[in-house]
Specification:
Elements lengths: L1 H22 L7 E9 L4 H7 L6 H5 L3 E7 L7 H8 L5 H4 L5 E4 L4 E4 L7 E2 L18 H8 L5 E5 L2 H8 L5 E6 L3 E3 L1 E2 L5 H21 L6 H4 L1 H5 L6 E2 L2 E2 H4 L8 H9 L3 H16 L9 E7 L1 H9 L4 H20 L6 E7 L8 H6 L5 E3 L1 H16 L6 E2 L6 E4 L9 H15 L5 E6 H5 L15 H6 L10 E5 L3 E3 L15 H4 E7 L6 E2 L4 E2 L3 H8 L22
Parallel strand pairs: 1-12, 1-13, 2-21, 2-22, 6-7, 6-12, 14-19
Antiparallel strand pairs: 2-20, 3-4, 5-9, 7-8, 10-11, 13-20, 15-16, 16-18, 17-18
Length: 556
């Protein structure tokens, strides 16, 4: 009886606290500048792990509306598709960005998610060109431009896919960091690289001069030596000693120097510095119209892949990121209009398998090439084929059926090869479930109000399938079996349909917001319609996401 009474009083206290808290959230955002920040590979677990340590920008943003249980609700949790959901309000099966790469059977080769041979790159006319062309959905920035042509939209990132997919088709500038050059962009026919780079030319010149005078060297042990140093340990990854394989020793070659610069906190520092410069140069938020600035911070992803997510390197990265975000938010005090800041992530990520295994988790790697070779051999034998019929150039979790020329097979061959391969794969002990992409396309979709945490694996997969781009077979490996091959600069990965890769924090902050935790799940596709409602922009009717009121009981 006493326990019941105590519990009842506790529930009443929580309810009263919530009512008081909710009733104080009365200042609606009225922004002239919307800033949307994505931290690449910033899982909900990583956010929760370091949240008590935040003292800078992440602490400030955590004093707004906090959804600690945000979700990327599709299966192929990679950078390109994840970013495509943030400001389109649509899942990858409607954005067209189904994965980072896919296999083009007509051409017989792998295609990058933003690859566009009709354009060139400003830093290298012979490089692999990119543009928004493969993004078949519009973004909030496009909706904004349609109703307010004077509005300015800029996207900046450490990666092209972070800058382009968030800022959309009509952006005034999309810039990403290219070590050794500065911030680059894409150049459409009829324009010059000089014209396209004008917004960042002065910034690039100063960046190059600063790096020449003071080369950046990341010593993670100095910034937060206490708590971060305590996380250091040695591991075996790919048969190599962790410290022997991945030292932060001075690089000798120029290529290694640029790689080390890229996979360090410097990438985020430079990205935020450019965002600040663009904001001030173009007076974003100072005029009567609403402006948009999208920022994708890539260093957490680079560092997660190279060092894992829970060692001293990531610890120091998060501390530095928190500090740099604090300086960036402080710079927004100069904006004449109101500012709404949104923070999310393109996907989450688990730590590398060996460290998790050492902590008692049954985590092991699935090495892709031998696994696929064995699968091809079995299918060849079963069907008496003279060629390897399965290609996995976009990753072994999506497999394409091909003909003898590695191009489009006959309808009959595709059907019988898919059926045989599916039967084999679903008997594999490392596989949770494999799916026929064609069957997923005809599957009844989940209800519009279905919680992202309750979706079946099949529905998560369905939200990743875009005809002509996705493989014939999609594979969900078991949560404790990670398809990745460790290398000297790559020990950890993501991309699965499991919660450690899907769950991300989603934060909304503006001056006047009262801290408010919302523990029920939010889908990343809800971000764009929510921002649209806050800025008076009409969102398209065919979105997957829906607006969520930022102010308690005041609706959208």
């Amino acid at each position: 009886m006493k326990k019941t009474l105590t519990l009842g009083l506790a529930v009443a206290a929580i309810s009263t606290a919530f009512s008081v808290q909710a009733s104080t959230i009365s200042v609606k955002p009225d922004p002239k500048l919307v800033v949307v920040i994505s931290i690449d590979q910033f899982s909900a677990n990583l956010y929760a792990q370091h949240r008590p340590e935040f003292v800078g920008g992440l602490k400030t943003l955590s004093q707004g509306i906090v959804y600690p249980n945000g979700y990327q609700s599709h299966a192929m949790t990679e950078t390109c598709p994840g970013h495509s959901t943030l400001l389109t309000g649509k899942h990858p099966n409607k954005t067209g960005i189904s994965a980072n790469d896919w296999y083009d059977r007509a051409a017989g080769k792998q295609v990058y998610c933003l690859g566009d041979p009709s354009v060139t790159l400003a830093d290298d006319p012979k490089g692999k060109p990119v543009s928004p062309a493969n993004l078949v959905a519009t973004t909030y920035g496009d909706w904004l431009k349609a109703v307010s042509p004077r509005s300015r939209v800029f996207g900046v990132s450490g990666k092209d896919r972070g800058a382009i997919t968030m800022s959309g088709h009509q952006a005034d500038g999309q810039f990403w960091f290219q070590p050794g050059f500065g911030f680059t962009t894409w150049v459409p026919p009829g324009q010059t690289a000089e014209d396209r780079l004008k917004p960042v030319a002065a910034f690039n010149a100063k960046l190059a001069a600063d790096l020449k005078a003071h080369p950046y060297v990341w010593d993670y042990a100095k910034a937060s030596a206490g708590r971060c140093k305590a996380l250091e340990a040695d591991y075996e990854t790919g048969g190599r000693s962790w410290r022997a394989a991945l030292p932060l020793a001075p690089a000798t070659s120029q290529a290694d120097k640029l790689r080390d610069l890229y996979a360090s906190p410097f990438t985020d520092q430079a990205t935020l510095d450019l965002a600040t410069r663009l904001r001030e140069t173009y007076g974003l938020g100072d005029g009567p119209q609403v402006d948009l600035l999208t920022i994708s911070l890539s260093a957490t992803d680079f560092i997660g892949h190279r060092f894992g997510t829970r060692g001293p390197e990531m610890c120091d990265q998060i501390a530095r990121l928190d500090d740099r975000l604090g300086a960036f938010l402080k710079s927004l005090d100069k904006v004449k209009g109101g500012v709404l800041v949104v923070l999310a992530a393109d996907h989450g990520g688990a730590d590398f398998a060996e460290r998790l295994h050492g902590e008692g988790y049954d985590m092991e790697r699935v090495i892709g090439k031998p696994w696929l070779a064995k699968l091809n051999a079995q299918v060849r034998a079963d069907l008496n084929l003279s060629w390897d019929p399965l290609v996995a150039d976009g990753g072994i979790d999506q497999i394409y059926v091909v003909g003898p020329d590695r191009k489009t097979p006959s309808i009959t061959d595709r059907a019988r090869i898919t059926a045989d391969a599916l039967a084999i794969i679903n008997r594999e002990p490392v596989v949770a479930q494999a799916f026929d992409a064609q069957a997923l396309l005809t599957m009844e979709p989940a209800p519009a109000d279905a919680s992202p945490e309750e979706l079946s694996v099949a529905e998560r997969m369905r939200r990743s399938v875009y005809p002509g781009r996705t493989g014939d077979i999609l594979i969900a490996f078991r949560p404790d079996r990670v398809p990745s091959t460790p290398g000297p600069a790559y020990v950890s990965t993501h991309g699965s349909p499991w919660d450690y890769d899907r769950r991300v924090p989603i934060l909304f902050w503006w001056k006047g917001a009262t801290p408010h935790e919302r523990v029920l799940p939010l889908d990343t596709v809800d971000i764009a319609p929510t921002i649209a409602a806050a800025t008076g922009v009409k969102a398209p009717a065919d979105l997957d996401g829906r607006c969520r009121p930022l102010v308690y009981a005041q609706g959208c």
